[in-house]
Amino acid sequence: MKKIIIPVIAAVIVISTAISIITYTKSSGYRTQKEIADNIIRFHVRANSDSDKDQNLKLKVKDAVVSYLQKELSSADSLDDARNILYDDIAQIKDIAQTVIKSEGMSYNVDVYFEKSYFPLKTYGDMSFPPGEYEAFRIDIGEAGGHNWWCVLFPPLCMVSQSYSVVPDDSKQMLKNVLSDEAYDTVTMQDLSNNRYRVRFKYLTFLNKLFD
């Protein structure tokens, strides 16, 4: 009887522990993602289609708008400041995008707006943002049926050049200033390198004794 009961007890403990760990991980991950989302504004430029011509146009629109916004947002000291500047500049940003489109001999409509929606895991340079709902400032070109280009407008992490594979340290510092250590480590993926979230089974010793 003991040989039957002990494995059953052990199995129950392992399953219970696994459920607790999964529940905690999901809860902790949600809190971290929400903290990140509450402190940033994403920027998305969606192309008319995935044709080479439309994708190249998207990048040219992005370059022009990011160059403009880098100056405009340099005075933003908070998320609210950045949001207000963007709202005030919607018409100007739309004009910039349409000017680029016309200069390329195209006549797509442009929509510029804020949205809150779910985004999958995204990596920008050497930073990754967990999946979840985020506030985004968005430019839709034409049918907006193509892949998008994205970055973070606030704190200012957008880089005009495509040659950068690492976000500059001063930009990272701005992000660090508005996030907890845990959230910042998640974005910069430091939690993976220092094993902060390694799972330790505290029942392991107890289970070993059961099977002795």
What does this structure look like?
- With 212 residues, the chain is α+β, with helices and mostly antiparallel strands.
- It folds into two domains: 1-39 and 179-212; 40-177, no CATH class.
- The protein has helices spanning 2-37, 52-72, 79-88, 90-103, 169-178, 181-187, 190-193, 204-211; strands at 41-46, 110-119, 122-124, 127-129, 132-141, 148-154.
- The strands form two sheets. The chain has a four-stranded mixed β-sheet with strand order 2-5-1-6. A two-stranded antiparallel ribbon has the order 3-4.
Defining traits:
two-stranded antiparallel ribbon, alpha+beta, 212 residues
- Number of helices in the DSSP assignment: 8
**What would you report as the Rg, rounded to the nearest angstrom?**
23 Å
Note the gap between the termini.
Answer: 16 Å
> Average pLDDT, to the nearest integer?
80
Which bin fits the share of residues in helices?
A: 40-55%
The overall number of domains is 2
> For the report, how would you describe the main beta sheet?
4 strands, mixed
Low-confidence stretches: 16-26, 192-208
Q: What's the shape?
A: globular
Structural class: alpha+beta
Secondary-structure element pattern, one letter each: HEHHHEEEEEHHHH
How many individual β-strands? 6
- What proportion of the residues form beta strands (DSSP E)? 15-25%
Strand order of the largest sheet: 2-5-1-6
